[in-house]
Structure formats: structure tokens, C-alpha cells
Design goal:
Blueprint: H1 3-31, H2 39-47, H3 53-87, H4 100-114, H5 120-145, H6 150-174, H7 180-189, H8 197-216, H9 218-223, H10 228-233, H11 238-260, H12 266-278, H13 283-306, H14 314-337
Helix pairs in contact: 1-3, 1-13, 3-8, 3-11, 3-12, 3-13, 4-5, 4-6, 4-7, 4-11, 5-6, 5-11, 8-11, 12-13, 12-14, 13-14
């Protein structure tokens, strides 16, 4: 067996290992928390056996929906990050690159300060529509420049993010420091603590449309890692495909962060880890990025509940997990260019 076939044989084993890690993390995620649930309780619930009513209620209404939300958040952010890094040909691209995070943050901030009873539904709606509006602005800005370069999308995203941050700073300045300002800051750090089954079900269709659409376009996305001229020569219609990919990514990421708030680094570190594992950057890497993202976010959510008496914001943990990976990537890039 030569080296190439050995690597091909290793890919299924890597997928199996990551799948097993996600399943173990999901079980741990369901078990840990202020109200303890055992593995035997989980087995009994799935087997239809009698368990304590409180245990069943906590499992069905809180832990299961929270764990599923953490998995789909990691999958969505990982897939989106991988897609952005491929189509923008930029290893630092992430869901923030085209202004989704900035727009969602602004939408949530506007909802917090403008709605007198700004519950989670108002904040989630504001975040989703803010992310969608940010991408529309990016597309209009790119169209106004009449440029076909992928770097124009990156620059347009930076512009929209800068405008969003400026407006958010103004809103924070005039916000009520006891209620509105605290809510803005907490939402920016992200949490799964507010996840419920109804919220999960409300965003699931949008998430699935975005994810399935990206998977159906994965071959075209893979070809977009080549130069624009090569893509056109291979029959890829760049403008409509790129617009479709951006729209689907926005639908997926916007639906996630409208419930969880901002989750830092997950969409950046998952693609790098997947590439290090597979030693390639293609449609297989997109799928692996989603799986790695699911494991990273699940692990961060578990740590957020067990490290301190009060639940920590999720972005603190994803940043702590992500920084060593990025340092390793920086060191390996330095050796390659030396």
C-alpha cells in the first residue's frame, strides 16, 4: 500500500473518531449541570422506562435541546468558516468576514434598546435580520464597486463591521447601564443557557436549508479555491454561485447566533483543525470542519458549566480553546515560508 492509499484509508477512521468524540461529548453535555442526570437515566428515558419526573423534564426541555443547539452551532460555524476560507482564499476568513456577526450584534443591540420588553424573541429576531441586512449591504457595496475580486467582499465586510461597531458604541453610550448595557455585553459573549426546545425548532428549518444548500454546492465551492479564470474555464458561474453560497451561509449562521449570541473563534479554528487532520482543502474538509466545530462548541459548553459556580459565557471558552490552535497554525505557516 502506497502513501496516498494509506491516507485515503485514514480518512474514514478520522471521521469515525470525530463522530465518537461528538457522541461522548453530547452524553457528557446532557449529564452535567446544576441538576445531575446519569447515563442510566438517559438509557431509561430512551427505553421508555419510568424515571423521576423532574429528571425527564430537565432532559427533554433543557439538556437535550441545549446539546442539539451546541452541535448544530458548531456544525454551522465550522462549515461556514471552511466555505469562507475556500471562496475568499483567505485562511483567516470566518463568519465575521462578510459582516454577519457585526450586523447580528447591531440588530440585537437595537432590539435591546428600542423594545420596552426586549425578551429573547425580540433580540433573536433583531440579530437574525441584522445579520441578513449586513450581507445585503455587503453585496450592494460590492456591486457598486463593479469589482469581481474576492478581496472586495472581504473589504466590504470590514466596512460593514466597522459601521456596525460604531453604531453599537453609540447605543452603549446612551443605554441604561443597569439593564440594557448588561444585556448587550452578555449577548456579545454568547451563551446556550437561554436555549429552549421552541427556539431550537424555530431556527431549525433555516439552519437545514442553509446547510443542505451548501452541501449541494460543495463541488462548485471546491472549484472556487482556484483562480476566477480557472473556475470559469471549468464551467462555474462565479457570480450567482458566490451569491448563493453567501446567502445560504448567512441563513445558517444568522439562525444560529440569533439564539446563542456571538460565538468567537469556532468558525475560524474548526477549518484549520480539519485541514491539519485531512491534509487537504476540499469538499471533504468542509464536512470535517462542521464535525470539528460541533466537538469544539460542545466541549466549550461543558466547560462553561463546570469550571465555575456561575455559567461562563461561551466565547471565553472557545477563545481559550482556539488560541493554541491558531498559534500552532502560525508556527507551521512560519516553517513553510522559511
Amino acid at each position: 500500500m502506497n502513501g496516498k492509499s494509506a491516507k485515503k484509508g485514514l480518512v474514514p477512521a478520522l471521521f469515525a473518531a470525530v463522530t465518537a468524540a461528538i457522541l461522548v461529548a453530547a452524553v457528557v453535555s446532557i449529564c452535567v449541570g446544576k441538576y445531575s442526570i446519569t447515563v442510566d437515566d438517559i438509557r431509561a428515558i430512551f427505553a421508555g422506562k419510568e424515571v423521576d419526573d423532574m429528571t425527564r423534564r430537565v432532559f427533554l426541555t433543557l439538556r437535550l435541546s441545549r446539546t442539539i443547539m451546541a452541535i448544530i452551532s458548531g456544525v454551522g460555524l465550522g462549515v461556514a468558516g471552511s466555505v469562507y476560507q475556500i471562496i475568499f482564499k483567505n485562511p483567516l476568513a470566518s463568519p465575521d468576514i462578510i459582516g454577519i456577526a457585526g450586523g447580528a450584534n447591531l440588530g440585537a443591540a437595537i432590539a435591546i434598546v428600542s423594545v420596552s420588553t426586549s425578551g429573547m424573541f425580540a433580540i433573536a429576531s433583531g440579530a437574525f435580520w441584522g445579520g441578513l441586512a449586513a450581507v445585503v449591504c455587503v453585496m450592494l457595496l460590492v456591486k457598486a464597486t463593479r469589482s469581481r475580486s474576492t478581496s472586495t467582499y472581504v473589504l466590504a465586510g470590514i466596512v460593514i463591521n466597522a459601521i456596525s461597531k460604531a453604531i453599537i458604541m453609540a447605543l452603549k453610550y446612551f443605554a441604561d447601564p443597569e439593564n440594557e448595557l448588561a444585556a448587550m455585553e452578555y449577548w456579545e459573549m454568547g451563551t446556550f443557557g437561554n436555549t429552549t426546545l421552541s427556539k431550537l425548532l424555530s431556527i431549525l428549518p433555516m439552519f437545514l436549508i442553509g446547510l443542505i444548500g451548501i452541501l449541494l454546492l460543495r463541488r462548485q465551492i471546491e472549484l472556487m479555491s482556484l483562480s476566477d479564470n480557472e473556475c470559469r474555464a471549468l464551467g462555474v458561474r462565479l457570480k450567482p454561485v458566490r451569491a448563493a453560497v453567501l446567502a445560504l451561509s448567512t441563513l445558517m449562521v444568522g439562525s444560529i447566533i440569533s439564539v446563542t449570541g456571538l460565538i468567537s473563534f469556532a468558525g475560524l479554528i474548526a477549518p484549520h483543525t480539519a485541514r491539519l487532520m485531512l491534509c487537504r482543502n476540499n469538499s471533504t474538509t468542509i464536512i470535517m470542519s462542521g464535525m470539528v466545530g460541533a466537538f469544539v462548541v460542545l466541549t466549550a459548553d461543558i466547560l462553561a458549566r463546570v469550571l465555575y459556580s456561575a455559567e461562563l459565557p461561551i466565547s471565553i471558552l472557545t477563545t481559550v480553546i482556539g488560541v493554541p490552535i491558531l498559534v500552532y497554525f502560525l508556527c507551521t505557516r512560519g516553517k513553510e515560508t522559511a
